[in-house]
Amino acid sequence: MIYKSKLIEILTGKNRGLLATKNDRQEILAAIAQLEDYNPNLRPFEAKELLNGNWRLLYTSSQELLRIDNFPFLKLGEIYQCIRVEDTAIYNIAEVYGLPFLEGIVSVVAQFEIVSEKRVNVKFNRSILGLQSLIGYQSPNKLITEIESGKKFTAVDFDIQNREQKGWLDITYLDEDLRIGRGNKGSVFVLIKV
Q1: At what angle do helices 22-36 and 2-11 cross, to 10 degrees?
Q2: How deeply is 121 buried, as exposed, middle or buried, from its count of CB atoms within 10 A (0-12, 13-18, 19+)?
Q3: At 47, which helix (H) or strand (E)?
Q4: Distant-in-sequence, close-in-space partners of 181: CB < 8 Å, separation ≥ 6
Q5: Which of 164, 174, 192 is nearest to 48 (CA)?
Q6: Which of 7, 51, 121, 127 has a CA 20 to 30 Å removed from the CA of 89?
Q7: How far, in whole angstroms, is CA 23 from its chain's centroid?
Q8: What are the helix (H) ranges across the chain?
Q9: pLDDT for 45-96, tens place per residue?
């Protein structure tokens, strides 16, 4: 599809939004809106096999996420959002790189509740921040398996009790390998299936 190819082309070299200028962001939002008009799955939760799995972030306008790159001596690596439809679980995993042996992980675990044909309410319930070496991080799948088993990590690992730690997400485009979402804080997310 031409609109999908155009969006992917525009996102090339933007480093998930870190290198996007104001003009780039406007062009990206316009390309996203064009592609959303051709969403082949208007009811994404009925396409569970497409939605389920691990997704890698290609672009976001979320300054909250991109701000991780602003810490001294740290660079934001890959960011994953792993969806487990049957468990109504979302695992957000950001890899962080810096000085040798100080590679880190920032992970947030959430539960979701389907509230409309394209919207989920999200409630964050656990956060894990630590060094990849101490956590034994190898891949998103391995980390998720350990989280699901109830493992406590040698890291800052805590339950999120604050009732304010919630939000919503609309899935506005979904196909075999691309997903677009819009969040309650006005952020947009473009992800590719891995």
Answers
A1: 160
A2: middle
A3: none
A4: 169, 170, 171, 172, 188, 189, 191
A5: 174
A6: 7
A7: 23
A8: 2-11, 22-36, 48-51, 63-66, 132-135, 140-148
A9: 999 999 999 999 999 999 888 888 887 778 899 999 999 999 999 999 999 9
